[in-house]
Structures are given as structure tokens and as C-alpha cells.
Write a structure and sequence with these properties.
The chain is of the alpha+beta class. It has a single domain, classed as Sandwich (Jelly Rolls), CATH 2.60.120.380.
Length: 144
């Protein structure tokens, strides 16, 4: 009886992982957005809990070296089994240079292209709209 109960518990745990999209499947699905004239460079995963304070939203922060004269594409994909919609922002120092979310029109884009006019270390921020809990992946690719 203990063996059967153990097997049932293990199957239920494995099933929950199989249906959870916050894993390599999310990365693979998001990579389908990369065009054939682009090269995959990096993935950025973010899994954040709900905000406890509306003025202090959780953010996943990453750094990336981008080179002058290249056009980069940033895609962001949210896991379907979380309520949060991902926002990917690119900063040069403290200056926001691009985002997948336009705050004035409240329009959500899933990607943007960025022409790099100077070689520097840029910051990538991934957060979730309204501080909801979420899981997302950001994909960085470079146009050939």
C-alpha cells in the first residue's frame, strides 16, 4: 500500500512539472519568435512573486554587453500558467532606452529592436505588469 501511495504522489508531482510552462519549454517556445536572419545570443529567465508593496515592484535585473553598430532584438514571453504579463526594459545607465510596454498608451509589445550606437554594458529589467506574480523569459538575438 505504501508503494502504491508513493507512486501516486510521484506521478502527481511529475504531472505538475510537466504542465508548468516555467521551464525550458517556455524558452523553446519564445525562441520561435527569432527570425531566420537573426542569431540567438542569450536567455534571461525571471520568476517573481507578487508585489507586497504597490510602490516597490519586484524586478529581475541582468547586465549585457552590447556592441556599437549592431541591431539587437529583445523578445519576452510570459508563462501561461501565471497571471503576470512580462515587461522587458533596456537601460543605459539609469536611462530607459527601450521597453516592451508603452506606459502612456498601455500597449504591450512582445518584442523590440534596438540599434546600438555605443558599446557599453546595458541593464535588462524584467518585471510583471501591476506587480502580479509571473514567470517569463527574455530572449536576446542579433540581426545578421
Amino acid at each position: 500500500m505504501k508503494k502504491i501511495l508513493t507512486i501516486i504522489i510521484l506521478v502527481l508531482i511529475a504531472k505538475s512539472f510537466a504542465y508548468s510552462q516555467c521551464n525550458q519549454t517556455l524558452v523553446t517556445n519564445c525562441c520561435h519568435n527569432i527570425s531566420s536572419n537573426s542569431v540567438f545570443l542569450q536567455q534571461y529567465r525571471a520568476k517573481l512573486a507578487a508585489a507586497t508593496n504597490p510602490t516597490d515592484l519586484p524586478v529581475a535585473r541582468f547586465s549585457v554587453l552590447l556592441s556599437k553598430g549592431n541591431t539587437y532584438k529583445f523578445d519576452v514571453c510570459s508563462a501561461l500558467d501565471y497571471e503576470g504579463e512580462a515587461i522587458l526594459q533596456l537601460f543605459d545607465g539609469n536611462k530607459l532606452v527601450a521597453s516592451t510596454y508603452h506606459t502612456k498608451s498601455k500597449t504591450d509589445f512582445k518584442a523590440f529592436e534596438f540599434y546600438c550606437s555605443k558599446t557599453a554594458i546595458y541593464k535588462i529589467y524584467i518585471s510583471f505588469l501591476d506587480g502580479k506574480p509571473g514567470c517569463a523569459v527574455g530572449i536576446l538575438s542579433m540581426k545578421k
